[in-house]
Specification:
By secondary structure, the protein is mainly alpha-helical. The chain has a domain at 110-161. 69% of the residues lie in helices and 9% in strands. It has a two-stranded antiparallel ribbon with strand order 1-2. Strand 1 and strand 2 (73-79) form a beta hairpin. Helix 2 (28-42) runs antiparallel to helix 4. The chain is rod-shaped and about 115 Å long. The termini are far apart.
Amino acid sequence: MGDRQVVDTVDQQLPSSPPLPPPPPPSKDDMISCVMALEAALLPCLPAKELQAIDRSPHPSHQIMNAPIINGEKRRVVKVDVDRHARDFMEAAKKLQLYFISLQREDKPSKAEMLKKEIALMEDELNEKNELIKKQEHLIQEWKKELTDQLDKHNTELNRV
């Protein structure tokens, strides 16, 4: 539960912090090592299906201890340092979370960049519309000229008659 509170406070601090310059993107090898650390921290926490699986476990934190004899049976107890593994897991999870947050920041442009892009798009749209208006005005001028020419022809014919 204490770990959950730590994670919650980390989540609460990240969005409210002032925008920092984006850290250099982690390499693929860094991410693979983070995932390996995450897996290495998680696997020892999982319960073994058989005691023999623990016997073969190379992990140093799995300590097999002989327990007292109960009902004529000798029992073996496996002691696992769960707190340490949970801490390692949480550290690896935080690194992975920071990696994904950095990826999200890379994909998400800043407010200023978004506004610049919008302004550029609007300027392009305005230029296109201005060109269309000029073309239409040119067509209107040509039509006016044709109409005045036709009007002059009709007037000259009327004057002849």
